[in-house]
Amino acid sequence: MTPEPAEPEQHCLVVFVPATHAEQVLQALGDAGAGRSGHYSHTAFVSRGTGRFTPLPGAHPAVGTVGTPQEVEEVRIETLYPAAERERVLRAMAGAHPYEVPAFTTFPVHARGPSFDEQGRLRSRPDPA
To answer: How many CB atoms lie within 10 A of CB 37?
Structure first.
């Protein structure tokens, strides 16, 4: 039996961006290699919410003024990317993002395991219990 090829290590990026700039950030992330899954590209989960922040002295805010609390309609973008492409993906995100300090986090994601093929499809349906 031929061993399955190892899946490349994946990480997840979660970034918050003003709704007005979500499409350009999504495009930049996909163009940099994030969001590839099987025969699909530019995949992401996007949810809406409200971002809150107060620019401190020394800040050059894209929205609002120093010392005044702000609320901005933002979206949360979640997408997977190959761990080896981390720097490229993060540079693309930061380059497309309007904030001087984007709010984001990354973390490793476990491999899907042997139940799934290299495209992410379930190899066979389990028997109902």
So the answer is: 13
